[in-house]
């Protein structure tokens, strides 16, 4: 659905003289419906749970994405708009200091009211107001509001992914191993372990061209790549089992100091969601507990684990520049749609980057410290959301995302 949404957006934005407002209305409906489709298998209790400070309740994701449109689109641009509930700004603002005070993130799971039904009504209230705004907008208003709608839709797609990763983490705390969707199947993946030469020399990375990108993908700029070979395929569970069998989680000398501290404090001895039952390894998936498939890409590993694995293998994680150049050259299997891939690049501004003024300037720029870049996209990313220039970022211990890796060998 979302791939179709994106193509509708791009086609209509580029085509002068078509019903731009109608195209945005359709795109808005499609993205909003995808969020509800993802939430549909969840009970009211499922929608409330918050299993750690980094995750959010599904109900909160549904309300926060709605607040985003209310706060940044409707209140500044829709004269006479009446908030659904003036208290919701405090509850559902995530981190926008410019938008006012907000509820403490680790306590989102304590908010039993509004209940899920009220959140559904909130979504309907805002949906109707957005559609009405689009219907009444002349060309000048459309030019002003469509960039806000566009970022609001891409923002909602990001939360669609988080809705799945967060509920899987919650289910992983449940001894009965619940399934989000028993019919869910992992994506098909290419299999192999050969490497391909990196195109050495000067290349351009970052977003350039038409269409949407987040501000952190710009400015495009030149990078210098040295010679080396990058894995065509993602690292597999089978390779990870070799790492484990060779004492990977018990060898301090393979780990960064902070990573080894996590191994000890968290008791890590396998990727996230892996459980050993009668000697066999299983993993909790969106379809419930399944045997670990040695041929499938490893998933739910932290940066610390990816880094230790690379050291054990006598190789390195690629830089984000190496990843993007190789992906643009078509050298990488499963670059998108399976697992985000850790790079060894710190999440920093590209040369010349400046955050936009105002609240939406808080979207990416203020997080450019103490996190690592992941490239690609995952099985939970809405189709059409990611790009080869897309920069995801998480703290090094994080492993509740669908995160894996590929390696680079400088020989
Ligand atoms: Fe958000």
Can you offer a commentary on this structure?
Helices cover 38% and strands 12% of the residues. It has 411 residues and is an alpha+beta fold. The strands form four sheets. Strands 10-9-8-11 form a four-stranded mixed β-sheet. Strand 5 (274-277) and strand 6 (280-285) form a beta hairpin. Helix 1 runs antiparallel to helix 2 (20-39), helix 2 (20-39) packs parallel to helix 7 (139-172) and helix 4 (58-77) runs antiparallel to helix 7 (139-172). The longest helix has 34 residues, at 139-172. It is globular, with a radius of gyration of 22 Å. The structure holds fe (ii) ion (FE2). Fe (ii) ion is lined by residues 64, 94, 155, 159.
What features would you highlight for this structure?
single chain; 411 residues; alpha+beta; four-stranded mixed beta sheet; three-stranded antiparallel beta sheet; 11 helices; 12 strands; disordered N terminus; binds fe (ii) ion
Topology:
Elements lengths: L1 H13 L5 H20 L4 H5 L9 H20 L10 H5 L23 H21 L2 H34 L22 E3 L3 E5 L15 E5 L3 E3 L5 H9 L11 H10 L7 E4 L2 E6 L2 E4 L11 H10 L7 H9 L11 E7 L25 E4 L16 E3 L8 E2 L3 E2 L2
The structure holds fe (ii) ion (FE2).
Secondary structure: helix percent: 25-40%
Strand order of the largest sheet: 10-9-8-11
Question: What is the string of helix and strand elements?
Answer: HHHHHHHEEEEHHEEEHHEEEEE
In angstroms, what separates the terminal alpha carbons?
43 Å
Count of separate DSSP helical elements: 11
| Percentage of residues in DSSP E strands | 5-15%
> Main β-sheet, in a few words?
4 strands, mixed
Principal-axes geometry comes out as: globular
Bound compounds: fe (ii) ion
Mean pLDDT: 95
Q: Specify the structural class.
A: alpha+beta
Rg computed from alpha carbons, rounded to a whole number of angstroms: 22 Å
Beta-strand segment tally: 12
Instruction: Flag low-confidence runs.
Output: 1-8
